[in-house]
From TrEMBL, chains A, B:
Keyword Electron transport appears in the UniProt entry: no
Name used for this protein in its record: Prephenate dehydrogenase
GO BP: any one term: tyrosine biosynthetic process
Organism: Pseudorhodoferax soli
Example GO molecular function: prephenate dehydrogenase (NAD+) activity
UniProt KW keywords: Oxidoreductase
Domain named Prephenate/arogenate dehydrogenase: residues: 3-291
Keyword Oxidoreductase: yes
PROSITE patterns listed in its UniProt record: PDH_ADH
């Protein structure tokens, strides 16, 4: 389907996309670039890419598919570096966890190449980042959110839909704003809460001894608190408006629980818990149906 | 080691204890009682118990080991029902998630049998409760907290230590107060936060559609929100003082994150995240060392 993938950012997300595309027989050649030369070198050694590009622009030049899989904060610089090299039919996608900021960056930096761009966010990841953990099956069966812009080319959108579908992903389309609200709620806020939860215990005098007694519930609840600090700093700041709105909704729910505990109102407390418990017991991952 | 186990409450925790004790060859006969006759009947069918007792007192009579594995709120009634039947050398334990309330209940209800009682809290469980999920390996390698009372008999304490050790558990001794602080932090607060998190999203206009897009991080972070409403209502109320103190510490940590996000202070935000991330990345379950 594609002659040449220009992969900018050869980490877990980008590397997994390259491996999946190759395994599906959908690309002839993969040129890769990472800001860190050792990452690009390692991607070559692992067979994730075929050739090392010396810059983002060099990776993008002549490619009919370009994937930008860099930290959110580096997106605009990358767009500015590659905009002039993109062909009219090239499909450009990102994999960022926030979308309104990426759309704004594209509008500022891509110039005449704006029709090439279809913003994408695959809902997939691993606890351990880096190209060494890249996995051709990472996107299999997982949601991929596309937030097409009014400027996105029709052929680019069709190709974006086709390529993710061919990789076994489940496509969901929404506006950048709806995306940012949704993931502020189900991803960014849980990370914020998990970080704050650990910090709130750690600063207590017996914090270390207390943490050492966490069991299986603690383990799962806090797993995401081990995530990368710079990545999450950038996500929190990039989506701060929606994140703060979700945080306020959560704080209100917490205050409601607190109020019933202080009042010793067992019936009201049980009702609050039962609502959450019923919803969570019925929840299944990857169950989104368009229109729900 | 024991002639007769009186098992009061034949659910997941009690049933698993019975199976483990039997597998280790540490008991000759197990008499069981549950408030629900169908549970006692099922425990008999599954070979968890040898005979059905008609009441808690009947299960405890003549037993040299009695395990009370009932909901926290039913502990005092159970103690009152069995106190007079306990022999001087009998070991009585519970498995409750809170300890100061259980100690107070024992002091009020056990009378002359108080020396029999060694409060216990095994840090183990499963997502699905009930005797059908009882598992002889549930306590293998897991922490069991003992909070001996000044009144606990020396021989009872020695037997309690010996039996959990023989089942492969890792013993930790602490005061009831230290226990309740610790588990308010690492168990009760995470449940409260997870419940409130789900409720806070569910009440939003698009709550259901938002929840449907949760990924692996959401799945793990919210797993404990599917827990049993009555059990957690009782735990929250039984340990409310410590839980509210931990909630306040958490709310302060959340407010600190909020402040840095509002200020757009990336360096301070990264530092808060890095502290949590470093602690959680180094954390391992069942790593408690006495004296840490």
């Amino acid at each position: 389907m594609f002659e040449r993938l220009g992969l900018i950012g050869c980490g877990l997300m980008g590397g997994s996309f390259a491996l999946a595309l190759r395994r599906a027989g959908l690309v002839r050649h993969i040129a890769g670039f990472s800001a860190s030369p050792s990452t690009t070198q390692r991607a070559l050694e692992l067979g994730v890419i075929d050739t090392q590009a010396g810059s983002a622009a060099e990776a993008a030049a002549g490619a009919d598919l370009v994937l930008v899989a860099v930290p959110v904060a580096a997106t605009e610089t990358t767009f500015a570096a590659i905009g002039a090299t993109l062909g009219a039919d090239t499909l450009l996608m990102d994999v960022g966890s926030t979308k309104r900021d990426v759309v704004a960056a594209a509008e500022r930096a891509l110039g005449g190449a704006l029709p090439c761009f279809v913003p994408a966010h695959p809902i997939a990841g691993k606890e351990r980042a880096g190209v060494d953990h890249a996995d051709a099956a990472l996107y299999q069966g997982r949601h991929v959110i596309l937030t097409p812009m009014a400027t996105s080319g029709a052929s680019q959108l069709a190709k974006a839909q086709a390529v993710w579908t061919a990789l076994g992903a489940r496509l969901v389309e929404m506006t950048p704003a709806a995306h940012d609200t949704t993931f502020a709620a189900v991803s960014h806020l849980p990370h914020l809460v998990a970080f704050a939860f650990i910090d709130g215990i750690a600063r207590q005098p017996d914090g270390q001894a207390i943490l050492a007694l966490g069991g299986p519930g603690f383990r799962d609840f806090t797993r995401i608190a081990a995530a990368d600090p710079r990545m999450w700093r950038d996500i929190f700041l990039a989506n701060r408006q929606e994140l703060l709105a979700q945080l306020r909704a959560h704080q209100q729910a917490l205050a409601q629980f607190e109020q019933q505990i202080v009042a010793g109102d067992g019936a009201a407390l049980e009702q609050l818990i039962a609502q959450a418990s019923g919803i969570r017991a019925a929840w299944h991952m990857d169950s989104f149906k368009p229109g729900t």
